[in-house]
Amino acid sequence: MPLMDHLRELRSRIFKSLIAVLIATAVSWAYYRDIFDFIVGPIVDVEGQLEAEGIQVDLILTGVTAAFMLQVKISLLAGFILASPVWIYQLWAFVTPGLHKHERRYALLFMFFAVPLFLAGVAFAIWVMPKGLGILIGFAPEQVSAFLTVDGYLTFVIRMVTVFGLGFLMPVVIVALNFIGILTAAAIRRTWRWTVIGVFLFAAVATPTPDPFSMLLLATPLLMLILFAFGICLLNDRRRGRLARADYSELSDDEASAIEGPDDIDGVEPIEPPEPLE
Length: 278
What we know:
By secondary structure, the protein is mainly alpha-helical. Helices cover 71% and strands 4% of the residues.
């Protein structure tokens, strides 16, 4: 396909994705109150505990247009998440024509596992968030009111959800690098000490609380997922080894090869045999 046709297709995919995001944003606008209650749920969970310690927690808005802009931001965020199946499909449809058949299968499989892992990271972040908020706000002295701006709290929530969601995608990246031949199980085994150190450094930087408990809450599931990914890489390397050691000595020289030919490639017309000469 010529370059201009690629650009036109990309423009069409982006336009369809934006339309889907705008429609989902409009739906989210109608359910703004429910979405807002869900976002401030972690604050509500720790509010009673902090009040027992003499700390009053209040979410505040600053500015005349702050309430309107808050609804716009939350509706756009929820719309982007709700429309994720559409824009992920549009991205997939744009990339797919440039992949071989086996690469499409691998990419589709990775996407199938990436979405649940990302959602699991988001759910884990929501579960950890009240504990982190309780520790952070708990540093305030007694009889002191903690006034939190809603914009600042929304930024905190987005950061937690993004970090945990992307962190849980790490095993998918490891397996993908192994399947395309860049990373082997032996290399992972040799660098396991650096992997553990890197995971703990990532958890220490990503978690907003300075205590080691929150760091362990993120590092422990990440290490377990990486161990599971290492097992998949090990099995894949052994499969490749068996294929490399396969014995073809018993096959006839005239036997057709199992290698994918032009007739098996999508978008390529099968080659007709030439007419015999008279």
